[in-house]
Specification:
Blueprint: H1 5-20, E1 26-27, E2 31-32, E3 34-40, E4 43-44, E5 49-54, E6 57-62, E7 68-70, E8 77-78, E9 80-81, E10 83-90, E11 104-105, E12 112-113, E13 128-132, E14 137-138, E15 141-143
Parallel strand pairs: 1-8, 3-14, 3-15
Antiparallel strand pairs: 2-9, 3-4, 3-7, 5-6, 5-10, 10-13, 11-12
Protein name: Carboxypeptidase regulatory-like domain-containing protein
Organism: Lacipirellula parvula
Length: 146
């Protein structure tokens, strides 16, 4: 091995980590951090898909077992678009790793679907609207079935 090879390898590794970070998504320009909890009748809504939409773009999140979510624009860019957002929440969307034995097969699309737990008043016909601010904030969605 040449004498310069080791320092060059170390320098290349340092620059790669400094440039791309340690796998944590960066913030997309014009977007702000958006996280919070989703509950239905006071209980965490695990597996709920939360979508933030406006003219700048669309961000997605999936709530964990405690109802917590963090919005991401892509795997490498986090955040939700700053400004007025239309929020769509659904539990019907199936994702890889979900247990298909608890789902139904849609004969028209050939795709598996989960049971929709989110009342119609919060879905596409009458979505929630919020204002995402530049400083970011927790955005909690406390849904009720009544």
């Amino acid at each position: 091995m040449h004498k310069l090879s080791r320092p060059l390898t170390v320098a290349t590794l340092f620059l790669t980590v400094a440039t791309f970070g340690c796998g944590k998504p960066a913030m997309r320009p014009g977007f702000a951090e958006a996280h919070g909890t989703v509950t239905l009748d006071g209980q965490p809504l695990a597996g709920a898909h939360v979508t933030f939409e406006n003219e700048k773009g669309t961000s997605f999140a999936v709530a964990d077992s405690a109802g917590n979510y963090v919005a991401e624009y892509s795997r490498t860019l986090k955040g939700a678009p700053i400004g007025k957002n239309r929020i769509l929440i659904s539990t019907k969307v199936a994702t890889p790793g979900d247990d298909q034995s608890t789902m139904t097969l849609n004969p028209k699309t050939g795709e598996y679907e989960k049971t929709e737990l989110v009342p119609a008043k919060y879905r596409k016909d009458a979505p929630i609207e919020i204002d995402v601010t530049a400083d970011g904030a927790p955005y909690n969605f406390e849904l009720t079935s009544k």
